[in-house]
């Protein structure tokens, strides 16, 4: 989970005992050297899949962190590129990597945009939202898009119950629930609270038309099913 240039175990312990915002402020300078950053392989597969739906005008990276999603937006969008996150530390890192982007500090559950973007993307942040918060979050993205605008994000296939990864993720979520039951402030980060069918229903409930496509560049599992799907939520 770590590299020699990434955060130490002590750094990670301090992060997880902080609030989500404070934790990411602390981790920001080393975040891109952790496995938590979305891989370039997944970013490139997403960008390739979105080419068929573009080009786009203005693009927004929701929960942008250090700006990994800008790698997707820049070749697809002809207009302005913006990112929004609530961690000042993460935005500082994004500003260094993408000095031409418009970066806004805000809680994405109350996005400060109305009808300004043609494409919105998000990567690796949905574990920070409890299921009850998803409708508010999705409604904010819906408002931020122009009519016909697209909200796109990847969702990985869940690991099988018989796999090692299933039990690792289940164990992590159980530990986080225990931590949040006995320690304040809470640190919301769960791996198994974003099932595709529930997400589709929440998106449709706020007015999106929802489709999915397989991310073929990300490969398929042994049974032929895609390892990852791209959710395409379009504002009518």
From TrEMBL:
Top-level lineage group: Bacteria
Keywords: Methyltransferase, Transferase
GO BP annotation list: antibiotic biosynthetic process; methylation
Short name of any one Pfam family annotated for the protein: Methyltransf_25
Record domain Methyltransferase: where: 60-149
InterPro entries attached to this UniProt entry: Methyltransf_25, SAM-dependent_MTases_sf
Stretch forming the signal peptide: none
GO molecular function, one term: methyltransferase activity
Stated name of the protein: Methyltransferase
Annotated source species: Wenjunlia tyrosinilytica
